[in-house]
Design brief:
This protein has 14 helices and no strands. It is mainly α. The chain folds into two domains: 116 residues, Orthogonal Bundle (Farnesyl Diphosphate Synthase), CATH 1.10.600; 170 residues, Orthogonal Bundle (Farnesyl Diphosphate Synthase). Helix 3 crosses helix 5. The protein is globular and about 55 Å long. The N terminus is likely disordered.
């Protein structure tokens, strides 16, 4: 018999479902709006995937020292192992455990996410090689996409979407957050791009103040645009109705990239007040438009 796509939610405690949903909503992520209109059982699985990602990301970005972060991430690796052995230990893994077989979730994708967080925890990442950047994007973004497309019901055709769209989203994140990252000693722009502008050996805080930064950001922006185009092509081979959440995420992040391009590939000022409210309205409109139609 083939795998069914139905989760028997009677085996999941309502408190676990609510805890997971609350974690996603509190994060204020575009992910929440992208997944909000999915059928209940798929939505619960997707929210649990996001909650897991949020937990390990918070460890990598948290105030603990390097050794404590590595230990905490290794505990999550053990929790994932236990989950796949039928021994989930917390709300997130209990909800995820019910999705493993119905949706064909893979252990290697969860552990890839943890590997990406370990790159940050051992960091800070500064001017990585192109190979290192590609690995980072694959672990922290594309692996998440690979988990999601299984839940969407496009496990095979969706793999290419996950690879290209994950890369596009993460490169856009890198450009959007370049000043914020530099403030904590991180710089994800690839070394070869920085070297072409004479920025490779400068500390992150100096790079983001240099007028040559915009040219380096434009080069990474071009990488993101190519990845979005590749994701579009991969989506054309999928059932677009099943992939609506991916389309929502793509449109939200394409707006980010468009704003950066319109700003001359210079870092955007922080959103406050009306601008922040407008951004939330924009996300909701995109979710409604691309999520329902």
């Amino acid at each position: 018999m083939g795998l069914t796509t139905r989760i028997d939610t009677s085996t999941i405690a309502p408190a676990d479902i609510e805890e997971v949903r609350a974690k996603v909503q509190a994060a204020g992520s575009s992910f929440y709006w992208a997944m909000r209109f999915m059928p209940q059982r798929k939505r619960e699985a997707l929210f649990a995937i996001y909650a897991f990602c949020r937990e390990v990301d918070d460890i990598a970005d948290g105030p603990q020292n390097r050794e404590a972060k590595i230990v905490a991430l290794d505990r999550w690796r053990q929790s994932i192992d236990h989950m796949f052995e039928g021994r989930p230990s917390d709300a997130i893994t209990r909800v995820l455990a019910e999705a493993i077989h119905p949706f064909g979730l893979r252990r290697k994708d969860f552990t890839a996410v943890i590997q990406g967080m370990e790159m940050d925890a051992r960091g800070p990442v500064v001017a990585p090689s192109q190979e290192e950047l590609d690995l980072y994007c694959d672990c922290v973004a594309s692996a998440v996409g690979r988990l999601c497309v299984h839940v969407f019901g496009e496990a095979e055709a969706g793999q290419n979407v996950a690879g290209h769209l994950g890369r596009a989203l993460q490169l856009t994140n890198i450009l959007r957050d370049v000043e914020e990252d530099a403030a904590i000693g991180r710089l994800y722009l690839p070394r070869d791009v920085l070297a072409r502008e004479g920025l490779a050996d400068m500390p992150p805080a100096a790079v983001v103040r240099d007028e040559r930064l915009s040219r380096a950001m434009a080069a990474v922006g071009a990488m993101a645009e190519r990845a979005f185009a590749d994701a579009d092509l991969a989506l054309s081979l999928c059932d677009r109705a099943k992939m609506r959440p991916a389309v929502v995420m793509m449109m939200v992040y394409r707006r980010h990239l468009e704003r950066l391009r319109a700003n001359g590939w210079k870092p955007l000022p922080p959103r406050t007040g009306l601008a922040r409210a407008g951004a939330k309205i924009e996300k909701l409109w995109i979710a409604l438009h691309y999520g329902l139609f």
